[in-house]
Design a protein that fits this description.
about 10% strand; alpha+beta; DUF3761 domain-containing protein
């Protein structure tokens, strides 16, 4: 009986490894953008589709007051700079 329980526990653990969901969330932004495309956001437009380029590869957004943002997530980006004008990630 104990052998069956041990085998069942090992089978459940192995199945959990193979069928577990990825840990990364959808809101996570890449540290660099080499594909030159933007993820969907609620405000602002994609800078690449409007022929805008970031100053460097770590810039994530350009605000309406022309300041730049290096925010690691989209929530609150450019909130004190009149909002996001262009997204680069």
């Amino acid at each position: 009986m104990r052998a069956r329980l041990a085998v069942s526990a090992v089978a459940v653990a192995v199945a959990g490894v193979f069928f577990s969901a990825p840990a990364a969330s959808a809101a996570t932004l890449p540290s660099t953008n080499t594909a030159h495309h933007c993820i969907r956001h609620t405000t602002g437009v994609c800078g690449w589709t409007h022929r805008q380029k970031p100053r460097d590869k770590y810039e994530t957004a350009k605000c309406y007051d022309a300041s730049v943002s290096y925010s690691s997530h989209s929530q609150g980006t450019c909130s004190h700079h009149h909002g996001v004008r262009y997204w680069f990630k």
